[in-house]
Amino acid sequence: MAAVESGRPQAAKLRWGELEEDDAGDLDFLLPPRVVEGPDENGIKKTTEYRFDEDGNKVKVTTTTRVRKLGKARVSKKAKERRNWAKFGDAVHEDVGSRLTMVSTEEILLERPRAPGTKEEPSVSEGLGPVQPGAVLMVCRTCGKKGDHWTSKCPYKDLAQPPETFVERPSTADAASAAPGGAGRSAYVPPSMRGGGERTGTEMSRRRNDENSVRVTNLSEDTREPDLLELFRTFGPVSRVYVAIDQKTGMSRGFGFVNFVHREDAERAINKLNGYGYDNLILRVEWATPRPN
Amino acid sequence: MRPILMKGHERPLTFLKYNREGDLLLSCAKDHTPTVWFADDGQRLGTYRGHNGAVWCCDVSHDSTRLVTGSADQSVKLWDVQTGTQLYSFNFNSPARSVDFSVGDKLVVITTDPFMGNPSTIQVKRIAEDPADQTSDSVLTIKGPQGRINRAVWGPLNKTIISAGEDSIIRIWDSETGQLLKESDKESGHQKTISSLCMFTDKSHFLTGSADKSAKLWDTRSLTLLKTYQMDRPVNAVAISPLLDHVVIGGGQEAVNVTMTDRRAGKFEAKFYHKILQDEIGGVKGHFGPINALAFNPDGRSFSSGGEDGYVRLHHFDPDYFSIRM
């Protein structure tokens, strides 16, 4: 009996039912070819190509690029020929959308070294009183007292003044202005001097502050301290905000702490903001420690 | 300027080389695959597949048809630049570190690392016109100085071979007899391992960079120290501009400082110095990791840097670069 060679011809007429999953990668012939609409007068080039994504759907990818002339170059004939060489190695399957080569979005300059003697830091002191020549002028940014202490050593450290003070507290405000303490006739009186009740010192107030600590979780990746401050300051003066940041990636780890000066503000913040939608995530706001009473 | 970022390598870059006409840029990295790019817009042309270890160095022939690469997989391979096919492979007993074509591309000087009791060697192999005739006989073998030889290049007219390495001494050898002709002075020379060496286009002088945070310019014939450029970090890569009196030096980071790396990304810079006045001209920031490779385009109008971060950054100079006055 003569052996009959029955091989399937390698035509493009494959029946889809006979194709195995593994062959999915070779289906490029089913895709329409890539279309390039060349650079127009603005230099815009549109390339339309098709490919299969992971689920096997046919995907049309349109890439719009601006072709910009960077400069003129005199090329030798050989160099011009090399421009037309076919891609090889790993570059063979390179599609137009590959992000291997990108022009930097930042403008990078050849930074000249600064001449010695030029100052970089902006000067902090403005409108200060007469200073003895040679003396170091200490200015505290928090309480504005001059010549007493630096900002980091400010005894009135737990103070972040919200621009709109609460209308509900006219009494304390009045009491504050009535008892200026040792600050002279200045309009500003730090809260630790107000009402006289917290004279025992800032240690106490700071500790109490930590008991007014509110933990906020389910923060979005790019939330930072200023964002939390802005969100929580409407409930009252906030003494400290902290957002946990992953050192390696610079992203927020999703949680942070807000310390209120007044306990009632913290309580209201919790009631109002727990479950609040902020930057596409639902916040969880609660007491940081098990509820102290 | 707006540098072009090319992320073709998954691992740190080790070496960059332009071809003679400056239209192709070859990059070698620890990821086993040397890559060729177009030097004007940074588009990738192709990759050379075949090595099994980190590729330390490469060189391309005068007519841009042959590429030679030295790799830690103990082989030096000869490739056809256009198609990426491997033409020949020289095998050694230890990792190959540096390769350099001679003028005329008939010879190549290769250095191998000290490994498993074998000392470091400098070997010269003949390159045949027709790859089919290629043999792996060494024309010359010099058995080494102590320590790793990081770079060996041909001197003017192929009469000498200049080597520099871990023992921080630059040596000049006769290329026919293998005899040691000159050594650099110990006191005025580098004090720590020499990581890189770059010849000027006419080979009259060359620049070496060392872990002792300085780069030094030497006269090729007499090996006199001409200039020293001080950096604040160990030097990994050096390059001399073919057009202006500039040199560019790229550095790394001392091991003790690694855990205290500045979190602000993109702060590793390539520093430009005036070649003759030794003053710093400026720095080009942008790399996220130490700079391991630098190369000037032969026309002097652009340069590229390769970093530990796997990126190659191709910079075309702004017009005001050419009118910098010191």
Automatic annotation (TrEMBL), chain A:
Q: RRM domain location, by residue?
A: 212-290
Kindly report the protein's main subcellular placement as a broad class: cytoplasm
Comp. bias (Basic and acidic residues): 196-213
Q: Which InterPro entries match?
A: eIF3_g, eIF3g_N, eIF3G_RRM, Nucleotide-bd_a/b_plait_sf, RBD_domain_sf, RRM_dom
Q: Which family does it belong to?
A: Belongs to the eIF-3 subunit G family.
Keyword set includes Transmembrane: no
Q: Which PROSITE patterns match?
A: RRM (PS50102)
One of the GO BP terms on file: formation of cytoplasmic translation initiation complex
Q: Is RNA-binding among this UniProt entry's keywords?
A: yes
Q: Name one Pfam family in it.
A: RRM_1
Enumerate the residue ranges of region (Disordered). 165-213
Q: Which GO terms describe its molecular function?
A: RNA binding; translation initiation factor activity
The record's section on PANTHER family has: EUKARYOTIC TRANSLATION INITIATION FACTOR 3 SUBUNIT G
- The name of this protein is Eukaryotic translation initiation factor 3 subunit G
Compartments where found: Cytoplasm
Q: Which UniProt keywords apply?
A: Cytoplasm, Initiation factor, Protein biosynthesis, RNA-binding
Any one annotated GO CC term: eukaryotic 48S preinitiation complex
The coiled-coil regions, if any, are none
List the Gene3D superfamilies hit by this protein, alphabetically: 3.30.70.330
> What is said about its interaction partners and assembly?
Component of the eukaryotic translation initiation factor 3 (eIF-3) complex.
Q: Which purpose does this protein serve, as stated in its record?
A: RNA-binding component of the eukaryotic translation initiation factor 3 (eIF-3) complex, which is involved in protein synthesis of a specialized repertoire of mRNAs and, together with other initiation factors, stimulates binding of mRNA and methionyl-tRNAi to the 40S ribosome. The eIF-3 complex specifically targets and initiates translation of a subset of mRNAs involved in cell proliferation. This subunit can bind 18S rRNA.
From TrEMBL, chain B:
Q: Does the keyword Metal-binding apply?
A: no
- MF-aspect GO terms: RNA binding; translation initiation factor activity
**Keyword Cytoplasm belongs to the record:** yes
Q: Output a single Gene Ontology CC term carried by this record.
A: eukaryotic translation initiation factor 3 complex, eIF3m
This protein's superkingdom? Eukaryota
* Main location per the UniProt record: cytoplasm
State its location(s): Cytoplasm
| Keywords associated with the record | Cytoplasm, Initiation factor, Protein biosynthesis, Repeat, WD repeat
Q: What SMART domains does the record tag this protein with?
A: WD40 (SM00320)
SUPFAM superfamilies the UniProt entry points to: WD40 repeat-like
Q: Where are the WD repeats?
A: 6-47, 48-89, 142-183, 187-228, 284-314
The job of this chain, per UniProt, is described as: Component of the eukaryotic translation initiation factor 3 (eIF-3) complex, which is involved in protein synthesis of a specialized repertoire of mRNAs and, together with other initiation factors, stimulates binding of mRNA and methionyl-tRNAi to the 40S ribosome. The eIF-3 complex specifically targets and initiates translation of a subset of mRNAs involved in cell proliferation.
- What HAMAP family does the annotation carry? eIF3i
Return the PANTHER family for the record: EUKARYOTIC TRANSLATION INITIATION FACTOR 3 SUBUNIT I
Q: What is said about its interaction partners and assembly? A: Component of the eukaryotic translation initiation factor 3 (eIF-3) complex.
- Family membership, please give it: Belongs to the eIF-3 subunit I family. Belongs to the WD repeat STRAP family.
Protein name listed in UniProt: Eukaryotic translation initiation factor 3 subunit I
> Which species?
Rhynchospora pubera
